[in-house]
Records
---
Amino acid sequence: MAIRAFISGCASTVLSDEEKHFFSETYPWGLILFKRNIENPAQVAQLARNYREIVGRADAPILIDQEGGRVQRLGPPHWPNFPAAEKLAEASQTDAVGLGARLIANELAGLGINVDCLPVADLRFPGAHDVIGDRAYGNDPADVATLARAAAEGLIAGGVLPVVKHIPGHGRAMADSHLELSRVSVSRKELERTDFEAFRRLSDLPLAMTAHVIYETVDAVLPATISPKVISEIIRGHIGFDGLLMTDDVSMKALSGSIGDNTKASFAAGCDLALHCNGKMDEMREVARNSPPLDGKAAERAKKALDRIAGGPKPLDVAEAWERFSAMVETV
């Protein structure tokens, strides 16, 4: 069975018979987990194992958003809280960011989760919508890129692939793309100096997630996720990203039209993978129907990404690492 170029969610803490049949028929590249899918460590690990058994790939990607702060799907009582990016940046120590990511990876790898949608390389701008807010490391592209790279390297050292987001930059958005579409009217030259620059400095990372944002001075009609111009000229061109490019969730309200049309448009624009998160079976089927087999350049990028963690996590003295991390930042 050929792997199809999409990532799916699921509805609950165990896979239903319908979901099992769907995954065995459609063979998605990966599965993404949310709080609705999480109960305790044993259950999460079993869910990951069950998915991999169905698709027949021991290294099949299991993804999660575990940033810290407001965005972390794993939390107390079974897992520790991690601080938001802004708080880590305030610690003024790149080591704190890298070590925090390494400890996140330790938690994830123990559950069989091998992809984390981290780091956020969006810049923080006064007056913008707080959907990014304290998830950003700051507003200077060089500083943000340095800290984002430290997070990415910490994850990789722990056997977990990073997904840099939201390329080419969500920080100026005046709306939450989960709910509505935002338009950015800043000049292309200014975007290249700021938002795009943070991602340009991270262009060698293995995976990136798109932004559902319109950049009017590049493409006044289409958001980046479904814009051939943004993907070819900015993401692949100016930024120089040649890794595996996945959409943000195609069910988000920022994208108008049907789930199927949005999925098809994302591939036509140049994305390698479509991401669908809400676990609604009717939508999952639409995404699958409009997702091609993962082949050609996209398959090469996917293999290259997974090869980055093929050796597994590097050794870590977890107790000592937590002691150092706690001394750097207050982990609450």
---
Amino acid sequence: MLRRAMINLCLALFALSVVVPLLWVLVTAIKTGPEIFTAPWGLPHTPQWNNFARAWQEAGIARYFLNSLIVTLATLAILLPIGAMAAYVFARYPFRGSKWLFGAFLGGMMFPLFLTIVPLFFLLVRLNLLDTLQGLTLVYVAYSLPFTVFVLTGFFQTLPQEMLEAALIDGCGHARAFWKVMLPLAKPGIIVVGVFNAIGLWNEYPLALVIMTSDERRTLPLGIANLLMVEQYQSDWGALFAGLVIVMLPVLFVYWLFRDRIHETMIAGALKG
């Protein structure tokens, strides 16, 4: 009982360390500037919902939000099919040199990001893709592919081989067996990988900072950083915290939408491991 009590206490403290800062940001987003400094832990006397309107329109969060949404969705649309096909080949069709190639993907996960920024910048300049949403999307696909292949390879390896053999006996080719049988079975893993990639891409800052040089094509993390510098001089801290809430809400919504599937997949992977 003592051990269980200690575990519950640790879990409760961890939950508080996550929930309390989140609630504080949400409450601060509807405060006036003076209230933020005079009563940082108190509730607002009158909720200032216009903070969100100023952040959305005057600070340009709407434009940054749309850019991030386009880039994230486009990246996932390209990344997930390519990553699933590559992972399936590594998991089910080993060939000479496949382990070395898979190791190269793993190396991409460990390669320091800052070492790629300068050559990546000049490559995009030569391809006329610098400061474009298309260029940032292609960079994000390459940036996220190692993690996607690594996770999905392990997931495809856990799928029953009998399902593939039955599909081949019934007359399916290898490609059709992948799209019609194996890929639907891997849907939980693809959803989990998609959610984690979406969260990472939504909050990605260094690559976007180097590639997106014009204000109208900035993504949301760049817009929030710019908003922070602007609001420091205008002392409009309510709009700044409202902008932070706007950044967090899509991530929280996506995680809440797929929370059961994420938990089931992670538990299943732990049990199989």
